[in-house]
Amino acid sequence: MITARNLTVSLSGKTIVHGVSLEARAGELTAIVGPNGSGKTTMMKAIAGELPSKGEIAINGHALAALEPWQLAVKRAVLPQAATIAFPFTVREIVRLGLTVGPNRHAERIDAITAEALAAVDLAGFAGRFYQELSGGEQQRVQLARVLSQIWEPVLDGEPCFLMLDEPVSALDIRHQLTIMTLARRYCAGGGGVIAVMHDLNLTAMFADHMVMMKSGRIEHAGPPAKVMTDDAMEAVFGCRMRINGVPATGVPFVLPHTASA
Amino acid sequence: MSLNDAVRGDGARGSFLMRSVRARAAGDRTAIARLTLAALVVVSAVALALSIATGASDASALNVIGALFSGAEDTALSMRDRIIVFDIRMPRALLGFLIGAALAMSGAVMQGLFRNPLADPALVGISSGSALGAVLMIVLGASLPAGVMIALGAFALPLAAFAGGLLTTLLLYRIATRGGQTSVATMLLAGIAISALAAAITGILIYMADDKQLRDITFWSLGSLSGMTWAKLLAAGPIILLALLVVPFLSRGLNAITLGEAAAFHMGVKVQRLKYIAVVSVAGAVGASVAVSGGIGFVGIVVPHLLRIVIGPDHRYLLPASALFGGVLMLGADMLARTIVAPAELPIGIITALAGAPFFLWVLLRDRTRNGW
């Protein structure tokens, strides 16, 4: 479990995240949503240990501040927003970095895990391509394969590992959005945890167990999507009136008046 | 793997070499990297041997070694050959190789650290700092107390250049570091400013210099491997060697940092320590090299760039391969420099720039479409 208590993050003198507390449990997909500039990415970076912050952060009970980078690297992996690479790495070489940079727990299975991770993000057969030649969405999936290979086992030495994904599906087509969200769910089913910054509210509703709604650096609502996503909460957080609907139980016919023609 | 993927995977544009690498190992260039490294070890040995065996004089290294082992009487002729081979060619070849290795590997490290294939040690002010140190010593050395100059002897110039390079780099590192975090972008920009400042001060000194000093400055700045002695090798060699041995330990971290500093940290790299060791090693190696040889350009950019095309950017192979290839290139350029207008010799910096610059342009233009720059 990842816990943050009274987390405050300031960037060049400006406070971005104001004393938030949250829990991300193993076996659950925790989605962080909110408008642009609400502090989602900043909060995630603080939890990843990348930004200095005030408050307490712990991974599986270990205080974050007491962990060295290589100790953190076996407990959590982080998918950043778009990354450019200046050198001509092949896809295989990028994914392999996830396995060879930190403490290498799977030295004998590097090739196998690389292939499996690429297949998991639907990029089997891309190992020989140059990263720079790929489309934005393909690059995003290569990075995800790299992140996935870093903590390939959802549970290591009895401790759950955590995937931290910053807008993992922002550049993807609808089929691959579903592929990646399903992948995240499978990671949770395997005993690991996932924290994802999301913009697509429908995907969040479909896949998240726990939803954290942020506005202006504070957590406004947190809980299961079915409870948190109300018309009023959405308006308060996103600043526009929307109606939340539920898909009817399978087999029950329903009428969608939008489709009516007089 | 679908048929579509297979076609897209192997049918992409690229050079013949790239296509063959792809077809053979689907993105795994480990084999070709190891092969290249092995080949470079052999070529390095050959280049060192050739460099010791050839020169403006007809002294034969084989004869000298033969004489050593047969225990023959020292004739005047073999004595002369022995001096040429042992005291002139050998320190020159060894130091030349080390300098080439230092410049090329430092280029690779800087490019990795700055995540830019065009970065080189000159960017962080090492070269201009060294030049300032050297020019200071040439112009103002005469006004130092005679005792100091006598104590320093032939080391005065190299020491000044080394100190200049190291001090500039450390100053730059201080400027770019705030709250324990070094900003690589600040370092780059401040490097440009500090280089300009060093160049201006150098300019003032050149303006003050007399004719003989001007000639010294010009020759130093052109770069040369002439006048290499065992003493210089003992002075600069250990610093360069230490850097060459330390830097390969940074290769995994440099690989990670190509994805960005944050990503490197996420993967378990102590980024700040990596930056510090990289900058100090490069400052030491390049400072020591520039100190004894003057300004030798283009090795630091051309060598890693060419190797990346062949073996890929994995620093575990790129760093040692750059060192070996840089050493070989330097010896090749030096052999040209001292035979092309024998018995006189060209400053080697002219040859590396004359051959390196057009070649580099050619590579850039050829790859422009693929790399997008």
Automatic annotation (TrEMBL), chain A:
Keywords: ATP-binding, Nucleotide-binding, Translocase, Transport. One of its GO terms (molecular function) is ATP hydrolysis activity. PROSITE patterns: ABC_TRANSPORTER_1, ABC_TRANSPORTER_2. InterPro entries: AAA+_ATPase, ABC_transporter-like_ATP-bd, ABC_transporter-like_CS, P-loop_NTPase. SUPFAM superfamilies: P-loop containing nucleoside triphosphate hydrolases (SSF52540). The keyword ATP-binding applies. Residues 2-241 form the ABC transporter domain. Belongs to the ABC transporter superfamily. PANTHER family: HEMIN IMPORT ATP-BINDING PROTEIN HMUV. Part of the ABC transporter complex HmuTUV involved in hemin import. Responsible for energy coupling to the transport system. This is Iron complex transport system ATP-binding protein.
TrEMBL record, chain B:
The keyword Transmembrane helix applies. It comes from the Bacteria. The chain crosses the membrane at residues 32-53, 93-110, 122-142, 148-173, 185-209, 229-250, 276-305, 344-365. Keywords: Cell membrane, Membrane, Transmembrane, Transmembrane helix, Transport. One of its GO terms (biological process) is siderophore-iron import into cell. The keyword Glycoprotein does not apply. It is found in: Cell membrane. GO terms for molecular function: transmembrane transporter activity. GO terms for cellular component: plasma membrane. InterPro entries: ABC_BtuC-like, ABC_transptr_permease_BtuC. It is a multi-pass membrane protein. Belongs to the binding-protein-dependent transport system permease family. FecCD subfamily. This is Iron complex transport system permease protein. The lineage of its organism: Bacteria, Pseudomonadati, Pseudomonadota, Alphaproteobacteria, Hyphomicrobiales.
